[in-house]
């Protein structure tokens, strides 16, 4: 047998007998691996992590600002962009235009996700930010149906398609970007700010529309006032674009092997990323879909369906229904980052599992409280569901990226997240309304939540704990030298997987 000698650095080929070869193999098996040192830990400056969180979160804020605006001003939009044949037909057309964005989100995920793994997270997130801002501002500039006829709703549809397509690459990229920048011991806290941005955007959009509705006469609101919230998206998008261009690439992506970097731009690599995600990583992909399912069914039940439910089933005025949901969201908003920090200590899996169990237990009581019709009971019921939602929104932005290695992380998260949102999140209001209509039972939407909680709980059983661990395919990350020394020490003791 011949073996390459490395002891003397000559690289010669030496003839070895079978006995010598056996001794060499036994020596190699007994040899201890290199002891981890602080130099093996990537240190990310806290200022860079904060900038990364701010730049990523502003995209979520903008997306949900638009969501809040569109939801709260839907009645006005229907009158501006659709013919005056029937108020019901106008509103249905508006909601159909709103919903079409969900249909193209998976296409955006399929396009931008693998692209982010090929050319870098920062570049793709800059593109999605630009497209989101362009789509939002475009809605504010489109002439009314009275001015240009059928072209108005067509242009509105095109703008919504642009928004939906770009959003398909936004959330997966934002969670990947923050998770790869955050220190391992603080990833839950840092990533939870993304969902804080979500609730901030939703509440801000709803508040702007509410103020315009109160301050402007109806004719002025119809004539020009409705455009203001959408035009705000322009400056907000420019701020986000500026923040994202100032960022460096994430440490995990920058440390990828040079050979991988050379292959990222090739068409074969682009095709192989899909086969890798659906072939090699189909289990993490299914886990991602299951976790996002329970998260988004709860989320869209509260943000998209609850105002309609309070109006149609409980008898509240539309304005009061919107205010109650808005108040509940504001009250639970601060708990997102608190529970995100807590998940860094006790783990993501226990928090998500608690949310799934709580959803199964409290869904029916919450809807029972809501159906009492008393505003105190209604607010209590919405708050119960809001507290369950926090269990998911505080942890999943850091849990889902940890399912995939660096080479397919952006693509895996984007594809899994958007498939789940399109199939389950976007259809939640429709399924809920269908259940109420078919069963005649006002509590029936609660059973949809129970089913989501059960499916989410089953998924959690297959979810690997990721708190205080390095991301798959990445070196450990710390916030400073002291934390790097502690991480290396814990690795040597076997306490840091």
- Helix proportion range: over 70%
| C-alpha Rg (nearest Å) | 25 Å
Q: For the largest beta sheet, what order do the strands appear in spatially? A: 1-2
Shape estimate: globular
Low-confidence stretches: 1-18, 20-33, 258-263
Compressed to H and E, one letter per element, the order equals EEHEHHHHHHHHHHHHHHHHHHHHHEH
Count the DSSP helices: 23
Share of β-strand residues: under 5%
Q: How many E-type strands?
A: 4
Largest sheet geometry: 2 strands, antiparallel
First-to-last CA distance: 37 Å
Q: What is the residue-averaged pLDDT?
A: 84
Class inferred from helices and paired strands: mainly alpha
Walk me through this protein's architecture.
- This protein has 497 residues and is an all-alpha fold.
- Helices cover 77% and strands 2% of the residues.
- The protein contains 23 helices and 4 strands.
- It has a two-stranded antiparallel sheet with strand order 1-2. A two-stranded parallel sheet has the order 3-4.
- The longest helix has 33 residues.
- The radius of gyration is 25 Å and the shape is globular.
Q: Keywords, please?
A:
497 residues; mainly alpha; two-stranded antiparallel ribbon; two-stranded parallel ribbon; 23 helices; 4 strands; 77% helix; 2% strand
Could you provide a short overview of the structure?
With 497 residues, this protein is mainly alpha-helical. The protein is 77% helix and 2% strand.
Topology:
Layout: E1 2-4, E2 13-15, H1 18-30, E3 42-43, H2 46-72, H3 74-81, H4 87-119, H5 121-141, H6 145-148, H7 151-181, H8 187-215, H9 218-225, H10 227-245, H11 251-254, H12 258-263, H13 267-280, H14 282-314, H15 318-333, H16 335-346, H17 348-370, H18 375-393, H19 396-399, H20 409-425, H21 428-439, H22 445-460, E4 477-478, H23 481-492
Parallel strand pairs: 3-4
Antiparallel strand pairs: 1-2
Helix pairs in contact: 2-5, 2-7, 2-8, 2-10, 3-4, 4-5, 4-7, 4-20, 5-7, 5-10, 7-8, 7-20, 8-15, 8-16, 14-15, 14-18, 14-20, 14-21, 14-22, 15-18, 16-17, 17-18, 17-22
């Amino acid at each position: 047998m011949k073996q390459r000698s490395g002891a003397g650095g000559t690289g010669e080929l030496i003839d070895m007998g079978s006995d010598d070869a056996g001794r060499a193999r036994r020596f190699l098996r007994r040899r201890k691996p290199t002891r981890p040192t602080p130099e093996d830990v990537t240190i990310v400056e806290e200022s860079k992590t904060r900038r990364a969180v701010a730049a990523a979160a502003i995209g979520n804020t903008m997306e949900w600002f638009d969501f809040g605006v569109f939801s709260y001003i839907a009645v006005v939009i229907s009158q501006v962009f659709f013919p005056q044949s029937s108020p019901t037909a106008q509103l249905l057309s508006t909601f159909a235009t709103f919903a079409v964005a969900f249909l193209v989100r998976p296409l955006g995920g399929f396009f931008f996700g693998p692209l982010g793994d090929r050319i870098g997270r920062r570049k793709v997130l800059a593109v999605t930010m630009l497209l989101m801002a362009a789509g939002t501002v475009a809605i504010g500039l489109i002439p009314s149906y009275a001015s240009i006829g059928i072209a108005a709703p067509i242009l509105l549809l095109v703008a919504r398609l642009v928004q939906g397509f770009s959003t398909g690459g936004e959330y997966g990229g934002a969670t990947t970007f923050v998770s790869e920048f955050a220190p391992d011991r603080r990833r839950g806290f840092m990533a939870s700010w993304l969902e804080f941005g979500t609730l901030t955007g939703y509440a801000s959009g709803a508040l702007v529309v509410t103020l315009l509705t109160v301050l402007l006469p109806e004719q002025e609101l119809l004539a020009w006032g409705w455009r203001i919230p959408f035009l705000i998206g322009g400056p907000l998008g420019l701020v986000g674009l500026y923040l994202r261009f100032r960022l460096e690439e994430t440490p995990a992506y920058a440390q990828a092997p040079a050979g991988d970097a050379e292959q990222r731009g090739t068409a074969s690599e682009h095709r192989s990323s899909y086969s890798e995600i659906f072939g090699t990583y189909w289990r993490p992909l299914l886990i991602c879909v299951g976790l996002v399912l329970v998260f988004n069914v709860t989320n869209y039940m509260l943000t998209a369906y609850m105002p309609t439910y309070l109006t149609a089933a409980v008898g509240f005025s539309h304005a009061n229904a919107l205010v109650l949901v808005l108040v509940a969201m504001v009250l639970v908003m601060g708990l997102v980052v608190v529970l995100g920090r807590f998940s860094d200590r006790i783990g993501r899996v226990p928090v998500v599992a608690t949310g799934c169990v709580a959803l199964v237990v409290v869904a029916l009581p919450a809807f029972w409280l809501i159906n009492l019709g008393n505003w105190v009971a209604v607010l209590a019921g919405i708050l119960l569901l809001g507290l369950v939602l926090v269990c998911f929104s505080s942890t999943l932005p850091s849990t889902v990226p940890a399912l995939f290695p660096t080479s397919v992380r952006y693509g895996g998260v984007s594809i899994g997240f958007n498939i789940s949102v399109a199939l389950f999140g976007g259809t939640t209001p429709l399924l809920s309304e269908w259940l109420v209509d078919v069963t005649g039972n006002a509590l029936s939407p609660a059973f949809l939540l129970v089913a989501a909680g059960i499916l989410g709980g089953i998924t959690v059983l297959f979810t690997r704990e990721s708190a205080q661990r390095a991301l798959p395919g990445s070196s450990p990350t710390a916030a400073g030298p002291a934390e790097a020394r502690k991480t290396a020490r814990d690795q040597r003791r076997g306490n840091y997987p």
